[in-house]
Automatic annotation (TrEMBL):
Keywords: Membrane, Transmembrane, Transmembrane helix. It is found in: Membrane. SUPFAM superfamilies: MFS general substrate transporter. GO terms for biological process: heme export. Gene3D superfamilies: MFS general substrate transporter like domains (1.20.1250.20). It is a multi-pass membrane protein. This is Major facilitator superfamily (MFS) profile domain-containing protein. InterPro entries: FLVCR1-2_SLC49-like, MFS, MFS_dom, MFS_trans_sf. GO terms for molecular function: heme binding; heme transmembrane transporter activity. The keyword Transmembrane helix applies. Residues 1-280 form the Major facilitator superfamily (MFS) profile domain. The lineage of its organism: Eukaryota, Metazoa, Ecdysozoa, Arthropoda, Hexapoda.
Length: 314
């Protein structure tokens, strides 16, 4: 059975929420803010440089043994695995279920990017002077999402119901967005912590679930291609939704902006519900014995026909 873990990218996002408000303080002197930003950028550059060295010298191209039966099957010669990249892209774009997932995944992650990008501005609108709290709320969103990823992974391992899990997480994300929208202005920042964590549990927890569902729908296409397209869609929707969210926030206020994002999640839930549960990887990993027997019988019949025809010719 495959093991599913939380998305490690979420840890980096959490650090991105927590550390900058601690390093870059809200000074009255803009030069002091510039000095804080310079220090932060030097730290990031040094840390990422160390990571590059570690990747170059210590990371292996693949694990010593395949992590699953489906991955073991990809080790055998397969024209899909060795076909040109553009051919793989074409097949993915002709896969209706994957295209629908591409749209719904992009919308969900796009909303997350929009909210996380402007979280500081939204929190300070209702709670002036709480810059550190804004970063901590972002951390709550991400860490709750990491817990959600683990929980969803356990559900997927136990049930193998990829579409149902994806749809349920999407719907709960939408519900969390509505709750988050109408609790920002209650006047108690502790409530914002709780509602943000609830939103993050499902919204950030959806990220690895979407990857797993995509791998099921597109097998035996290379997972790097299918997940890469998901990330590309997330970036496109993220940029679009962030620009839209910022415009609505500045012109109409946070209620209108958040309601718009909640409606986007509603549309994404409908799109997810339309996806057909075509679990190709599961079928490869757990072949149907009945289908195998039928194929064996058909193969035997075909061989008998060939022998009979050769006998008649003689």
């Amino acid at each position: 059975m495959e093991k599913r873990f939380t998305n490690p990218k979420a840890l980096g996002i959490a650090v991105g929420f927590l550390v900058p408000p601690m390093l870059v303080e809200n000074h009255d002197d803009i030069n002091l803010i510039g000095d804080d930003l310079r220090l932060m950028f030097y730290i990031v550059a040094g840390f990422t440089s160390v990571l590059v060295v570690l990747v170059l010298f210590f990371f292996k191209a693949a694990p010593p043994t395949p992590p699953s039966a489906a991955q073991e099957a990809t080790k055998t010669p397969n024209p899909l695995q060795s076909s040109p990249f553009l051919h793989s892209i074409k097949r993915l774009m002709l896969n209706r279920n994957y295209v629908l997932l591409l749209i719904s995944y992009g919308m969900n992650v796009g909303v997350f990017y929009a909210i996380s990008t402007l979280l500081n501005q939204i929190v300070l609108t209702h709670y002036p002077g709480h810059e550190v709290d804004a970063g901590r709320i972002g951390v709550c969103i991400v860490f709750a999402g990491m817990l959600g990823s683990v929980a969803c992974g356990i559900v997927l391992d136990k049930t193998h119901r990829f579409k149902e899990t994806t749809l349920a997480v999407y719907i709960f994300t939408m519900i969390g967005m509505w709750i988050y929208t109408f609790t920002l202005s209650v006047g108690h920042i502790a409530v914002v912590y709780v509602t943000s964590a609830l939103l993050g549990f499902f919204m950030t927890g959806y990220l690895p679930v979407g990857f797993e569902f995509a791998a099921e729908l597109t097998y035996p296409e290379p997972e790097g291609t299918s997940t890469g397209l998901l990330n590309a869609a997330a970036q496109v929707f993220g940029i679009t939704f962030t620009m839209l969210y910022s415009e609505l926030l500045n012109t109409n206020g946070d209620i209108v902006a958040n309601v718009t994002m909640a409606v986007m999640l509603l549309v994404g839930s409908v799109v997810t519900a339309v996806i057909r549960s075509d679990l190709r990887r599961q079928a490869a990993q757990n072949p149907n014995p009945t289908r195998s027997n039928q194929n064996a019988i058909q193969s035997t019949i075909a061989k008998c026909q060939v022998i009979w025809e050769s006998v008649e010719c003689n």
